[in-house]
Specification:
By secondary structure, the chain is largely without helices or strands. Strands 1-2 form a two-stranded antiparallel sheet. It has 1 helix and 2 strands, in the order ββα. The chain has one helix spanning 84-92, and strands spanning 2-3, 10-11. It has one domain (1-95). It is globular.
Length: 95
């Protein structure tokens, strides 16, 4: 199951492949962005678990990252679970 980071709604993605300009059919936010990527981790260096990626300033904007892989979920997250880690990181910084 694939979930849009912005509206938290389930979206249909064929084989996990998302084009750079693809948008969520419900909220129209870009899908090919850091928040929807399985490698995004606000606690990691450069906020990415992939060590060879370039720095991306706007994590919510569409980007050209070649390491992008759409994040997959077993079930729909409750409430704001998708952003909880980012909020904790912004409160306490990198520990």
């Amino acid at each position: 199951m694939y979930i849009c980071y912005a509206c938290k709604e389930e979206i249909e993605v064929y084989d996990g492949r998302v084009g750079r300009q693809d948008t969520c059919p419900k909220c129209l936010s870009f899908l090919h962005n850091c928040h929807n990527c399985r490698f995004w981790d606000p606690a990691a260096h450069n906020e990415c678990l992939e060590t060879t990626t370039a720095f991306i300033r706007d994590r919510e904007a569409a980007n050209f990252c070649s390491s992008f892989q759409m994040k997959q979920y077993d079930s729909k997250p409750e409430g704001n679970d998708l952003d909880a880690k980012a909020k904790l990181s912004s409160l306490f910084g990198d520990l």
